[in-house]
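Predict the 3D structure for this chain.
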Amino acid sequence: MGNVLEIIALALLAMFFPALLAVVLIALRSRRPELLLGSFFAGGFLSANTVGLIIVFSLQDASVDSSSSNSLDPVFYVVLGILSLVAAWVVRNRQLLVKKGKSPEEESGKPDRLTRALDRGSPYALIAGLLLCAIPGFSALVGLKDIAQLGWSTAATVAMVIAFFLIMFAFIELPLVGFLVAPEQATVKTIAFNAWLDRNANRLATDVLVLLGVLLIVRGVVQLF
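Done. Predicted structure below.
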């Protein structure tokens, strides 16, 4: 039960993956946010689950001695934790540059590549989802590793991976469902949510990356000793 709760916590942290937050911000500013969100979700969810299942079953089937695997675990967590802290620094540094008006995109007067891709329409949003979500974030990598170590049946493992990514994509799923069920109310709430996300997205992503990095380093050090 403890491992499952940890996996759920990692999925919640994965919701703040910077690329996902960026996509939500860009889509909600567009004229047809439901099309961009739906297209990105279709590509991203398919890509994330495909890669995730490959990783999980590869880890389960790996013919590596358990003692050797356990000895590598602390190194895996410490390295991933350090990378997470580096990523937090990069996101934070970019935020400071944007506040100072020194963003490369703003200086050139051109939007970044992700914005340009999504502005081209839903087919490009689908492709962006396939490409961006093919590489799991730090939280997702640890979550997938933990899922592989549960030792569940194939069906249960597949269900757990799907559930993990359903949680991870919540910031895309919730507005999308709102547009489909109650478009008028969703439009009003989307304006408020977009304003809040615009103010807090970078800080949230940075804080989550720092928190994850510290937790992974501590986890690695504890396992090492």
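Confidence is low (pLDDT under 50) at residues 102-110.
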